[in-house]
């Protein structure tokens, strides 16, 4: 029968969890967070995750203010994937600072961006204003990408300064 072939084919269309976008392994076609329509990816930055060089003028234990100023989205090179048009297109970034009264936190819009299919595979997006840590980022992918039935997001990185 053709059952082994069908099982293998079905495994090709199984989506991975959103945490795959945080992996540091090399990009492999299909090793992505795949979705249809709109999707949200939230990145939480825990307390105490500041880079070790973010300490103020040699005083131990006093962290300087640092913030997220840009994010990067990395997709495989177009020639490495069967359908490059599954890359994301339009997305919005918002931040939640956790700095509100009573721990409620403040949510703010940080920018609307477009991943350009004809540009390099690794693209950086500078936020409209920095998001002070500790915080969480939310990326909302809207509109279904470049017209395909699904969208694949491979890597998302946030950078502090």
Summarize the structure in words.
The chain is mainly beta and 161 residues long. It contains 1 helix and 9 strands, in the order αβββββββββ. It has one helix at residues 3-12, and strands spanning 33-35, 39-45, 67-74, 90-96, 107-114, 122-132, 135-142, 151-153, 155-160. Strands 2-7-4-5 form a 4-stranded antiparallel beta sheet, with no helix packed on it. Strands 6-3-9 form a 3-stranded antiparallel beta sheet, with no helix packed on it. The longest helix has 10 residues, at 3-12. The protein is elongated and about 60 Å long.
- Uncertain runs with pLDDT below 50, 5 residues or more? 52-63
> If helices are DSSP runs of H or I spanning 4 or more residues, what is the number of helices?
1
Helical coverage, percent range:
under 10%
Question: Rg to the nearest angstrom?
Answer: 18 Å
- What number is the mean pLDDT? 80
> Quick one: biggest sheet?
4 strands, antiparallel
Could you give the distance between the termini? 58 Å
The backbone outline, from C-alpha atoms, is: elongated
Structural class by secondary-structure content: mainly beta
**Strands, total number:** 9
Along the chain, the helix and strand elements come as: HEEEEEEEEE
The largest sheet has its strands arranged as 2-7-4-5
User: Which strand-content bin applies to the residues?
Assistant: 35-45%
Task: Give a brief outline of the structure.
The chain is mainly beta. The chain has one helix at 3-12; strands at 33-35, 39-45, 67-74, 90-96, 107-114, 122-132, 135-142, 151-153, 155-160. Residues 52-63 have low confidence and may be disordered.
């Amino acid at each position: 029968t053709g059952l082994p072939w069908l099982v293998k084919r079905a495994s090709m269309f199984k989506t991975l969890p959103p945490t795959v976008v945080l992996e540091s392994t090399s990009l492999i076609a299909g090793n992505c967070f795949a979705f249809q329509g709109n999707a949200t990816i939230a990145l939480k930055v825990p307390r105490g995750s500041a880079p070790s060089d973010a300490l103020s003028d040699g005083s131990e234990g006093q962290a300087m203010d640092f913030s997220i100023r840009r994010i990067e989205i990395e997709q495989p090179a177009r020639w490495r994937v069967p359908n490059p048009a599954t890359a994301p297109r339009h997305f919005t970034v918002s931040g939640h600072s956790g700095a509100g009264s009573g721990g409620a936190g403040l949510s703010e819009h940080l920018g609307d961006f477009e991943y350009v299919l004809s540009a390099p595979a690794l693209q950086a997006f500078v936020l409209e204003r920095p998001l002070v840590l500790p915080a969480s980022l939310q990326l909302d992918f809207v509109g279904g990408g470049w017209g395909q039935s699904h969208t694949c997001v491979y890597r998302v990185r946030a950078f502090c300064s």
